Amino acid sequence: MLITVTRTGGFAGRERTASLDTEYRSDGAELELLAERALSGERPADGRPVPDGFSYVVHVDGKLVELRDPYLTEDQRQPISTVLGEGA
After folding, report:
1. Considering the entire predicted model, what is its pTM?
2. Sequence-separated (6 or more) residues with CB below 8 Å from residue 14
3. What CA–CA distance (Å, rounded) separates 74 from 68?
4. Residues 6-18: tens digit of each pLDDT
């Protein structure tokens, strides 16, 4: 499974994109499960951007979801952090 995350916003307003292929990772199955949960997870009806907050576009095998801080669930935050190289 290929997971791609694009993060925009924040104080500097820079865009960052990273991809991760789960096929040969020891934690691949866990990341795939979390990515599927991120796609199907809850999103608040009023998920308006907050000043200096991040926005994310998560692509998983042709499907995508748009998410925003501070409205991320832990199931959404973990694969985003891992793909961007900031997590576990």
Report:
1. 0.84
2. 8
3. 13
4. 999 888 888 999 9
